[in-house]
Amino acid sequence: IILTIDADLPREAFSIEEDGSALKIAGGSAQGLLYGVGKFLRTSGYENGFHPSEWRGTSVPRGSMRGMYFASHFHNWYQTAPEEEIARYMEDLALWGVNAIKICFPFLNFKDWDDPEADKAVEMTRRYARLAHDLGLQFGIGAGNTLFSGVPDHLRATRLPDPTHRRGNHGNPVCPSIPEGHEFIMEQMEELFDRLDGVGLDFLVFWPYDEGGCACDQCSPWGSNGFIKLSQDLTRLARKHYPELKTVLSTWVFDTPPAGEWEALSKTLAEGNNWLDYILADSHEEFPRYPLDVGVPGDLPLLNFPEISMWGNWPWGGVGANPLPSRFQHLWDSVKQKVS
To answer: Cβ atoms within 10 A of the Cβ of 29, count?
Structure first.
């Protein structure tokens, strides 16, 4: 077996071809080669000995960002697993063609920066960043208005109306329309970026609801008002530390119930955009119709985010993951011509 880099291939593409009596796996880069090795391993047989893959051809990835979200909070496996297990898991994902990892910095697990859990969370985040970059993967975290359990009461956000029970009112959201609240959010995120100095943050994902949000008059409707303003401010702050940082705006449960959030977001981005790189869309049920029927706000690249863990199971988190292959195929069929 010959492993090689072929500069004529697209950077993340690979090819598997005969080369005389040998088999040559080539990638357009080290990442492309890794994906090619993964294809070879997955399509080989192992029953009663090793049977090399018969797959031949060239494969070019469909999407520019093919990520996996690790929900690294609530002291679950992602937050507590030993490094060797995490490294092996991330290597498996890379062999499948995943090129980005996002984790959750678990603000809600501790009271403030003086809490001993805070140092553990920073250490965990730095470890994930190092392991991701060792594999050539992009690394990102989320950002929003949800912070510590010790948020002062006078800075807390107004609870969201949630008639569909999709937006959620958990976490510890801060109202960014209160000047002191906005300052508090900026200070805590500045501290986080300082503590992550040197890890190489590649992208930042802004999340509106579940957790997050504020229903005060100045922030409403949250998804197309307070959330957008805060995301712009967080972008400016983050790019002081990471000038090449990419940004992703999630529209999770936008217009649930209808509030004109999609339409208002489109109008805002049409007026100018020097801060946002991707739109992320999905929901608990069907994929949102707006980007399919009207178009992606700002004509930006679209990412999807299917519920990959416990959809349709109860109690939530009590019976493990639900693979849902038919559901995911249905969702993919509806968005595969739109995602970038």
So the answer is: 18
Asked if residue 10 has a cis previous peptide bond (ω within 30° of 0), the answer is no
Q: What is the CATH number of domain 67-335?
A: 3.20.20
148 contacts: CB under 8 Å, gap ≥ 6 = 107, 108, 110, 111, 112, 115, 172, 188
- What does pLDDT average to over the chain? 95
Among residues of the chain, what percentage have pLDDT more than 70? 99
* Domain covering 2-59: architecture: 2-Layer Sandwich (3.30)
Domain ranges of the chain: 2-59, 67-335
Angle subtended at Cα 59 by Cα 298 and Cα 323, rounded to the nearest 5 degrees:
75
What pTM does this model have?
0.95
Is 257:221 a contact under the CB 8 Å cutoff?
no
Q: Per-residue pLDDT tens for 13-68?
A: 999 999 999 999 999 999 999 999 999 999 999 999 999 999 999 999 989 999 99
pLDDT, tens digit, for every residue of 84-113? 999 999 999 999 999 999 999 999 999 999
Task: Quote the tokens at residue 206.
Answer: 């802004």
Residue 36's pLDDT is: 99
The strand order across the sheet containing 2-5 reads 2-5, 22-27, 14-19, 57-59
